[in-house]
Amino acid sequence: MGSHLRRVFNRISGFVSPWRRNQAPHGRRIFHREVQQEEFQYPSNSCLSSYYSVFVARLAIMVMLAILIGLLTILTWHFTRIYTTKSINSLAYGLRYELLQRPILRMWNILNSTVEITTAQVKLSEYVIKRYSKPTTQAQQVELYEVMRDVTWALFASRKALNAITINYRNGFVQAFHRDHRSNNTFYIFSDLVNYSISGSYNSNTLSSHQGWNDQSIHSNISAIWYHVPLDPVSGERIGKPKAIPPDDQINIAGLSQVPDGVASWHVAVSKYTDSPLLSAALPVWDPSNQSIVAVVGVTTALYSVGQLMKELVEVHSGHIYLTSQEGYLLATSTNAPLLTNSSTGPKLMLAIDSEDRVIRLGAEWLQRTYGYKFPPSHVVHVENAKLGHEHYYIDSFFLNLKRLPMVGVIIIPRKYIMGKVEERALKTLIILISASLCILVIGCVCILILTNGVSKEMKLRAELISHLDARRRAEASSNYKSQFLANMSHELRTPMAAVIGLLDILICDDCLTNEQYATVTQIRKCSTALLRLLNNILDISKVESGKLVLEDAEFDLGRELEGLVDMFSVQCINHNVETVLDLSDDMPKLVRGDSARVVQIFANLISNSIKFTTSGHIILRGWCENSNAYGNSGKFPLNQKASRSALKAKFKQHRNHAKRACKKNNKMTLWFEVDDTGCGIDPSKWESVFESFEQADPSTTRTHGGTGLGLCIVRTLVNKMGGEIKVVKKNSPGTIMQLYLLLNTPIEGAGQHCQLEFGEHSLVVLLALSGSMGRLIMSQWLRKNGVFTWEASEWNELTQILGQLFRARSSVPNGGLVMQCLPSEPLKTEAPNIQDTRASVFVIIVDIGLLDWSTDIWREQLNFLDKYHGKARFAWILNHDTSNFIKMELRRKGHLLMVNKPLYKSKVVHILEAVIKGRDLEMQGRILNGLKSTRIEGNLHESLEIDSTHFEEVPSSDDSDRSEMGSHKSINAYHIAEKQKDRIRKPCPSQYQTANSCLVEFTQVYSTENNLRTEDPHQIRPNSHDAGNEGHKLMCNKSTSPLTEAECENCRGQEQHLISTCPKEHGNSYSGKTVNGQKSLEGLRILLAEDTPVLQRVATIMLEKMGATVIAVGDGLQAVDALKCMPGAEESRGKCLLQDGRTRCQTQIHDSLPYDLILMDCQMPKMDGYEATKTIRKSEEGTSLHIPIVALTAHAMSSDEAKCLEVGMDAYLTKPIDYRLMVSTILSLTKRMA
Amino acid sequence: MDGVVQLQRQLLDYTTQLFQEGFLNDQFTQLQQLQDETNPDFVVEVVSLFFEDSERLLNELANTLDQQSIDFRKVDSHVHQLKGSSSSIGAQRVQNVCIAFRNFCDAQNTEGCLKCLQQVKNEYALVKNKLETLFQLEQQILAAGGSIPM
């Protein structure tokens, strides 16, 4: 467990660390589960792995999204930027080229114009000098100079850009015009003529003497005085006095030195007075002979304008342009930075890298650094992204290859100017793109999280669902185990309870108990019975729940079962002032197939439930059959059914149709029942829930009525198992109606077998004097339907009134005592028997004994009153359960032989009426026939009634306690029989003992089940007449048997002893009989025969009986055990008692504590085989001194079987077929030993 | 009276023949001895009980053996019962076949069981016929006013 836990946590922490958020709940959940139950480990593990996969998926999706968005961003940015940059770059290149081209062009122009001017000056000078060649005089010379001065001025004035024009003659005379651009003054500079010799300068005009005319001559004239005259810039008029200045002070005068080879020369010069470099061109002036140079013309142009132009050009974009010579000296820049350096030797040109302008200096340095002196051949450089300082610049340089003056132009433009906006835009775009993509990424991630969260939530839910399902399955399984356990426990629980009850019974029999002890033990017995019943209920439920309940499929008489049930419950109701009525329609099939015990259980539960909640009124159990023809024939339905049935019609139509179909298929019948009571009713909201386990309509009722609430649940389960349904239906009057239907099979031959009653032809008239109104009503309706005329009376006075009216009217008719006339004025009659031929009418008066007044002796008078009609009508008495024997005796003495117990239902009435009809027939023939005949008839009657009693014994009941209750309904029949047998007793009978005994048998049934036995006064029995004495004695005898089943009053125990004392006498008699007759070697022995094969049973019975033994045969081991267990009462009439023969009664009455002398046990039997039965019997004998001999009967002829028989506790062993003599000897040896 | 004597002789012959052919054995004699004036129809009663029981058992046997999965325990118990009842009335040949039947049953031999069932049915039909004839003879004798010779 611990290691599991750790592993799980390791896995989580190893994997989910980036998702701490998720980790916590997982861990917690897992921990919970771990703590809760180990079995949830597995689901949680699988859960975790699914969480991991979710995380991985989540991560993957996020990464993919990020990549996608990044790519998109980069691509977008790239394309926008690259193409823009490219196009702008090409544009910028054009611009730069253009920018640089213009100053170069200007430069070129300047050069050109300088050259033109120079050339023009030279040509003019040549012309002038030709005219004045060979000046001989000073005057000519002066004139020449004057002309020259004018010509030169004209040229100088025409060109504003010129800085200066100088003419240096051979003789050293200098003429020059100079324009100072800064001060905008124009000067004329000339040298003093005095110092120059004309001759001297013109003599040496040979080429060879060219040397002689050099600068030295000029410089040698250093002492010459130059004058400086300011001029009007426009007119050229002298406006000031000539001032003497030192030579070459203001301007450079181009001399011969500058034209050494007689061709034009260029150079860049600097001047003291200008801060920009000057472009000087010099050209020699040849003499006409073209052999010598007479003068040198120099033209100086300031490059200032180029700088101006460049300034203008770059102004807009704050770039820089500069021109340098090939050596790197600055010629012009676009800035105002000085181009010259002032050294000690005067101003000099400065190198570009020394420029004061930072950008130019940096650019030059950069170029030098990058290329050094190895410029590309054309000096063309295009650099787009040079970093100067902190800024990026475009640097482009062009090479201008002029003859003698090659120049390099460099343009430096800040990148910002051209690309600045673009790059800014690009940056902005990039930022926007990145931020947008980041936003998308974040949103996407959130979306993914949400989505996957949903998925993972679903997975979590699913995992939880799985675990819940698992848990539920386990719970169901465990509950199923519980049910199975309970079902299996049923036997284990019941056995000790049965033992407890049995031992209590024995204890109750014990006569040494004091009164208090006796009361306590009785109480214990009651409690045990209640406990057993409760156990049975719970076990039934569990049995059903565990699916172990299997319904039997056996034929049984439904009517009789229900009658028995009503009999049983009417005993309970008697204290409640509740009337129990059974109302079954005539079309109910007599025999149905099904589980009779369960059917009875259903109704027992329902009725007991009704009784519990009904304090006064009635409980009606209605039953009717529904098949296709009965449906249309409403007349066949019992009373009160029509209304409810019509209401039901719609409700159950579907069921009905379904049922009908089923009916046709396999002969199934839908039997409808309802239990109608007048109790407190059930709230409609509880109509469904009352059928749940442990549910009661009103929880408070538990206190007043008790109960577990299991009854109705069992009922519903059983009904459903039988293919039916149960529900509570609406009732107008107070109370409850539980309605149910069952689908039961009917035997094919018995399907249409209804008891067809033909009372009509007997013209019976029945006076129902019953206290219970509901029962009376139903009964009279039924009788009328069957052609019997009825009157009803509910109390004594009414009865006497009707009787009076009836018989008065009848006696007034003279012909015959039995003729009755109709009295239309009769208020109670609804259907007056308006027939003339009522001669044969038989009057039957059914009187409830409760109508008599028992408070004083009035009842005797009432009986006497009724006696008057004794001859005219037959009386049938409805007895209460507590009707004392004395009263019965009294009634019997007065000749009222028909007595039945409450409640009255159809079969009892049928019996009464049949008895009456037979009695009448008998009466008719009686005068002729002898007594024997009459006994035969009574015997028949007896027989028919006895079948009844045997039937009731067959009522299978789930447990012993129930059985003892169920036994109660035997009583009625017993009374019947008792009456009959009373006659027989009186009659001289050869085997009086046996007859008496049989009588006794019947009475045992009566007493064994009566709770009210105590009310019976034994003293009333004892002082009976001698005639009845015998009977009374037997009754006492009987009582000794009853204590085992029911609580017995103490005074009964007195008789018990008496009984014991009488027993040996009888025993002795039987033995004496045996000695007389050798054939009857088994005389007096009571043998229980357990044998399932009817043939063998019959054979063995006859064999034993022939030898004088009394045989009680049972069909299986279970019955045998039961017969031993509840010896009293119940066993005599038990099934196979074979009572057909009136004479050979089962005289099983008990003389001593053992009911039987011997058991013959077949080994192979259904339900419980012989071995099991023997074991059970032996077990029950444990702890007592009893040992009943058991002889095995088996067809197994092997010795192993014999060993097995002896092993389980049998005493002897007989093989089939039974050997007559061997059997006798075995039995005798065993019984003698016991004796 | 001659008729009666003749019938009585016929009955005796027939009974002897039954015993000789092995249809019946001593058990039947014992059964007859059990019959007296208190149980005048004892033999007939028992034998008819036997007929009813046997027919029921044979039906159930046929049903059980007709099933897909044969419950041999059930078959065995039925055969056992049949054996018990037949031996009780002394129907020896039925009893013998039953013994063979049970052996097959123990071996769970379906074919053998079916064969035996057929045999048992045959034997049962035979013995039923014979016994019915016997009872008819007896009835005739009784009707003619004679007594059953033993």
From TrEMBL, chain A:
Domain of life: Eukaryota
Domain called Response regulatory: residue spans: 1086-1231
Coiled coil: none
Reaction(s) the record says it catalyses: ATP + protein L-histidine = ADP + protein N-phospho-L-histidine
Enzyme Commission number(s) of this protein: 2.7.13.3
Residues annotated as transmembrane: 51-77, 429-451
Molecular function terms from GO: phosphorelay sensor kinase activity
Keywords: Kinase, Membrane, Phosphoprotein, Transferase, Transmembrane, Transmembrane helix, Two-component regulatory system
InterPro entries the record matches: CheY-like_superfamily (IPR011006), HATPase_C_sf (IPR036890), HATPase_dom (IPR003594), His_kinase_dom (IPR005467), HisK_dim/P_dom (IPR003661), HisK_dim/P_sf (IPR036097), Sensor_HK_Regulatory (IPR050736), Sig_transdc_His_kin-like_C (IPR004358)
Residues the record lists as 4-aspartylphosphate modifications: 1162
Broad class of enzyme this protein falls into: transferase
Residue span(s) of domain Histidine kinase: 488-746
Keyword check for Transmembrane helix: yes
Pfam families, per database record: HATPase_c, HisKA, Response_reg
Record's protein name: histidine kinase
Native source organism of the sequence: Vitis vinifera
UniProtKB/TrEMBL annotation, chain B:
Residue positions, PTM Phosphohistidine: 80
GO molecular function per UniProt: histidine phosphotransfer kinase activity; protein histidine kinase binding
Gene3D superfamilies in UniProt: HPT domain (1.20.120.160)
Listed InterPro entries: AHP1-5/YPD1, HPT_dom_sf, Sig_transdc_His_kin_Hpt_dom
CDD domains, alphabetized: HPT (cd00088)
Pfam family, one: Hpt
GO cellular component: cytoplasm; cytosol; nucleus
BP-aspect Gene Ontology terms: cytokinin-activated signaling pathway; phosphorelay signal transduction system
Main location: cytoplasm
Domain HPt stretches: 39-144
Compartment(s) where it occurs, according to its Swiss-Prot or TrEMBL record: Cytoplasm, Cytosol; Nucleus
Keyword annotations from UniProtKB, A to Z: Acetylation, Cytokinin signaling pathway, Cytoplasm, Nucleus, Phosphoprotein, Two-component regulatory system
Domain writeup: Histidine-containing phosphotransfer domain (HPt) contains an active histidine that mediates the phosphotransfer.
Functional note: Functions as a two-component phosphorelay mediators between cytokinin sensor histidine kinases and response regulators (B-type ARRs). Plays an important role in propagating cytokinin signal transduction.
Name of the protein in question: Histidine-containing phosphotransfer protein
Organism of origin: Vitis vinifera
Lineage of source species: Eukaryota, Viridiplantae, Streptophyta, Embryophyta, Tracheophyta
